[in-house]
Amino acid sequence: MKIPSEIPQLQDTVDGNSQGNSHSLGDHDSASLKDELNKSLDVDRKKRQQLILKNPEFQIKQEIEDEKQNIKVETLIRRELANSINIKDLLKLKISSKDLKNPIHSLFRWILLIFYKENPDLYNWLEFKEQILEKNNGEDLVNRFGYQNVMYITRLEGEKTKFLLNLKQKILEENGQPEVAKNVLIKIFDMVEIVYKIYEHAKGINHLVDELIKQEDNINQYKVEIQKINHHIQETKISLKSLENKSQNDENLSQNDEIVKE
């Protein structure tokens, strides 16, 4: 019996279609699995982000950075303010060494304490005037106003700063003439206020650091959970990479088959 030559050709076509369908199904499965893996990655990343945001360490460190930024801003303002102060104008005030009731002496004692680290009880107006205000037109004082580190003033110094701010109005009222001298006093009190703000920010940082230590166990629990998610994310990435490599290999094999057929 003679077998028609067309039949093998038809069989080849059928086999080719079968292989094509097989590749098509394989591609569909791979695409579906890839989609599931990508969804898993998205879910894990969202969980990780939520844990990071809930982690007390993140919140506390963010607050610490905010306080540091506030100090930087206040420091820049302080430097600009210091550069605008003319000590010569301050010397136009009529201050008597005998008039110890004048509250302005509290300001000068504070300057000795904060910027010169001297005992304010040893304050003497004539010496202060000669050695700090008149010497080199007060350049050293202006420089200290702008650049001396005041982050680490003590609690007592902070309280004295707050007390001085409460005397501001009284000092300005009793030393309001001439106007140019009063303007210098206003700027110096702006400086006093900045010093107090920096003190409060620094105190806030210390409190937050203490809180960070207290929360150590809780923070470690969050870190463990985050590490688990990171591990799962890495496994998912490896699976995705493996799937992509397999798809690429299958595609290369398919192309080689086509070349052979040709």
Question: What can you see in these coordinates?
Answer:
By secondary structure, the protein is an all-alpha fold. The chain has a domain at 64-214. The protein contains ten helices and no strands. The longest helix is centred in the N-terminal third of the chain and has 49 residues, at 6-54. The chain is elongated, with a radius of gyration of 38 Å.
Q: Could you tell me the strand content as a percent range?
A: under 5%
Radius of gyration over C-alpha positions, nearest whole angstrom: 38 Å
The SSE string, one letter per element, is HHHHHHHHHH
Report the count of strand segments. Answer: 0
Describe the largest sheet. none
Shape designation? elongated
Structural class, from helix and strand content?
Answer: mainly alpha
* Low-pLDDT sequence parts: 1-22
How many DSSP H or I helices?
10
Q: What percentage of residues falls in helices of 4 or more residues?
A: over 70%
Mean pLDDT: 85
Distance between the termini: 31 Å
